[in-house]
Design brief:
Layout lengths: L2 H13 L1 E6 L3 H17 L4 H9 L1 H4 L1 H7 L2 H11 L3 E11 L7 E4 L12 E7 L10 E3 L11 E3 L11 E3 L9 E3 L5 E6 L4 E3 L8 E9 L12 E6 L8 E2 L9 H18 L12
Parallel strand pairs: 12-13
Antiparallel strand pairs: 1-9, 2-11, 2-12, 3-10, 4-9, 4-11, 5-8, 5-10, 6-7
Helix pairs in contact: 1-6
């Protein structure tokens, strides 16, 4: 492991997160945003497929699939997880300009149905992530906590699938604001306490969350979900490996994503009193 990777892993093990990581140039981030927004415009009259695009961009847009395989992204994930890395999922967290949408304090791995914590999320800013636009906030060291109780709110303005929120007190005075310029990323542990506030600016706040896991991970129960191989090899076969998108917003890829959503929601909403319609 080189010095940069070793330092990144040490910071991650201490705090549960690392930022900022320089992944894309500002121009590359702008190109990704433009590709996304062109896709959104094309699907403006199709709410179901628009939701799929925002929840599974790497399965439908070749540009976002390439982001998950970007050498800097893969190197950061491998520094934490080792040489064999899967893309468990990708999703967009979008707060429209001057909107009340927020993300409550939570731990990512609460409802994912995975058996261990060998996961890391790289969150890439495609527009400025500032305090005013509702950047993420992390509580250093909270990744050392096991999964703690959460309550489901299904709040209308909460971007989380179940409106899940930690049912314990969070010392917000300890929280760090994760400010990022377009093209920069943060990296965080699946047990880390994190949240974000509303966007009070005149621009959308757009972030792409890429979830990486080791092939040794498996689902605790339920159907096998689909993943992509980012680097190395899968010697376990716990998940179904899928190839990159056939083409941009291909009909067959939409069908495959729809089937995978059904499998994932079986796990995600297990035990929930109601099923919300939220972004991934």
């Amino acid at each position: 492991m080189n010095h940069i990777a070793s330092s990144l892993k040490a910071d991650y093990e201490r705090d549960g997160f690392v930022f900022p990581l320089d992944i894309l140039s500002a121009a590359e981030a702008a190109d990704l945003r433009a590709d996304l927004e062109a896709g959104e415009a094309a699907l403006a009259g199709d709410r179901k497929r628009l939701g799929m695009l925002r929840g599974y961009p790497a399965r439908l847009l070749p540009s976002f699939d390439r982001l998950t395989r970007h050498p800097a992204m893969v190197a950061a994930a491998a520094a934490i997880l080792g040489p064999d890395v899967l893309v468990w999922g990708s999703g967009l967290f979008i707060k429209e300009a001057n909107s009340p949408h927020y993300v409550s304090w939570h731990q990512d791995l609460t409802y994912w149905g995975l058996d261990r914590a060998d996961e890391v999320t790289l969150w890439v800013a495609l527009s400025p992530a500032t305090v005013a636009s509702g950047c993420m906030r992390f509580v250093p060291g909270s990744h050392r906590e096991r999964i703690l109780p959460h309550a489901d709110s299904f709040g209308a303005d909460n971007l989380l699938s179940r409106g899940q929120e930690l049912a314990v007190a969070v010392d917000e005075a300890q929280a760090v604001d994760v400010t990022l310029a377009p093209g920069q990323a943060s990296l965080h542990h699946g047990h880390l306490f994190h949240a974000s506030g509303p966007n009070t600016t005149g621009d959308r706040r757009i972030g792409a969350a890429i979830r990486y896991i080791t092939p040794a991970m498996r689902a605790r129960s339920g159907p096998a979900t689909e993943v992509a191989l980012a680097t190395g090899e899968d010697r376990f076969g716990h998940f179904a490996i899928v190839p990159p998108p056939r083409s941009r917003m291909d009909a067959a890829d939409f069908a495959a994503v729809a089937a995978d959503i059904e499998r994932r929601e079986t796990i995600l909403y297990e035990g929930a009193a109601e099923a919300g319609n939220r972004q991934s």
